[in-house]
Amino acid sequence: MSLWGVYQGPQPPKKSLQEMTQQEQAEEGAKQFVNFMQSCIGKTIMAGVSGFALGGFFGLFMASMAYDTPIGSSPVQHISQLPFKQQMKLQFADMGKRSYSSAKNFGYIGMVYSGVECTIESLRAKHDIYNGVSAGCITGAGLAYKAGPQASIIGCAGFAAFSLAIDMYLNSDAAPPPENDYDL
């Protein structure tokens, strides 16, 4: 029987890895990898890893722009008043902290959103724009729940609107391309 309950006739028995040729082993490994990446767990992990990498880059970029902050809290001393070697040491330490913090946040949000979206899509058995909007709402509300119900509502609306905008933009590629001067 197949996944949908339709009888497809007798199926050949699966070979063990020792019975397969190297080519068959490679094909089986690739098939298992693709199946894993298409599962909710695989999508969630990839979203977390991608979000972590993007967040790290974003944090590094933003930290490199903030070079004029005072150091410490007791005497207000600017970094420009320190020796160059100490300035570099403090800058790189600050960039590392900000980059890691941003990476954790982006990775966490990516994992939560992707996991919720995949779960909703699996439950609804449909792939449409409502999955992303619902996942955005749940993710936004979940991230803001500690701040109270008003913050959860705003988080829900904000993430849902952002998700809708991204999905509409990405789905607009299916439309035919505009005419240009070269096609005439």
From TrEMBL:
<comment type="subunit">
    <text>Component of the TIM22 complex.</text>
</comment>
<keyword id="KW-0813">Transport</keyword>
<dbReference type="GO" id="GO:0045039">
    <property type="term" value="P:protein insertion into mitochondrial inner membrane"/>
</dbReference>
<keyword id="KW-0496">Mitochondrion</keyword>
<keyword id="KW-0812">Transmembrane</keyword>
<keyword id="KW-0811">Translocation</keyword>
<dbReference type="GO" id="GO:0030943">
    <property type="term" value="F:mitochondrion targeting sequence binding"/>
</dbReference>
<keyword id="KW-1133">Transmembrane helix</keyword>
<keyword id="KW-0999">Mitochondrion inner membrane</keyword>
<dbReference type="InterPro" id="IPR039175">
    <property type="entry name" value="TIM22"/>
</dbReference>
<keyword id="KW-0472">Membrane</keyword>
<comment type="function">
    <text>Essential core component of the TIM22 complex, a complex that mediates the import and insertion of multi-pass transmembrane proteins into the mitochondrial inner membrane. In the TIM22 complex, it constitutes the voltage-activated and signal-gated channel. Forms a twin-pore translocase that uses the membrane potential as external driving force in 2 voltage-dependent steps.</text>
</comment>
<comment type="similarity">
    <text>Belongs to the Tim17/Tim22/Tim23 family.</text>
</comment>
<dbReference type="GO" id="GO:0008320">
    <property type="term" value="F:protein transmembrane transporter activity"/>
</dbReference>
<keyword id="KW-0653">Protein transport</keyword>
<dbReference type="Pfam" id="PF02466">
    <property type="entry name" value="Tim17"/>
</dbReference>
<feature type="region of interest" description="Disordered">
    <location>
        <begin position="1"/>
        <end position="24"/>
    </location>
</feature>
<feature type="transmembrane region" description="Helical">
    <location>
        <begin position="45"/>
        <end position="67"/>
    </location>
</feature>
<dbReference type="GO" id="GO:0042721">
    <property type="term" value="C:TIM22 mitochondrial import inner membrane insertion complex"/>
</dbReference>
<protein>
    <recommendedName>
        <fullName>Mitochondrial import inner membrane translocase subunit TIM22</fullName>
    </recommendedName>
</protein>
